[in-house]
């Protein structure tokens, strides 16, 4: 149950990535001359959001395997 709850963070990461990319589209539509700089910031935001998304499966595997092995001993 805990591992399943930990993977709910993936939905939040998907929403975060959608927000980053929609903000990029809005900023380029408002000011096309800053498209290159805005794209760099969008890639940074995407990478940070994706890093958070990678912590969720890591925590799920820790809950599934590490804490389960401590119960058996």
Automatic annotation (TrEMBL):
Pfam families: ATP-synt_C. It is found in: Mitochondrion membrane. The chain crosses the membrane at residues 38-67. One of its GO terms (cellular component) is mitochondrial membrane. GO terms for biological process: proton motive force-driven ATP synthesis. Residues 1-63 form the V-ATPase proteolipid subunit C-like domain. GO terms for molecular function: ATP binding; lipid binding; proton transmembrane transporter activity. It is a multi-pass membrane protein. Keywords: ATP-binding, CF(0), Hydrogen ion transport, Ion transport, Lipid-binding, Membrane, Mitochondrion, Nucleotide-binding, Transmembrane, Transmembrane helix, Transport. F-type ATPases have 2 components, CF(1) - the catalytic core - and CF(0) - the membrane proton channel. CF(1) has five subunits: alpha(3), beta(3), gamma(1), delta(1), epsilon(1). CF(0) has three main subunits: a, b and c. Belongs to the ATPase C chain family. This protein is one of the chains of the nonenzymatic membrane component (F0) of mitochondrial ATPase. This is ATP synthase subunit 9, mitochondrial. It comes from Aegilops tauschii subsp. strangulata.
């Amino acid at each position: 149950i805990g591992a399943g709850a930990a993977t709910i963070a993936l939905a939040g990461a998907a929403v975060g990535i959608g927000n980053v990319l929609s903000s990029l589209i809005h900023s380029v539509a408002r000011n096309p001359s800053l498209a290159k700089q805005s794209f760099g910031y969008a890639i940074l935001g995407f990478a940070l959001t994706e890093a958070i998304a990678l912590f969720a499966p890591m925590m799920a595997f820790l809950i599934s395997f590490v804490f389960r092995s401590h119960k058996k001993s």
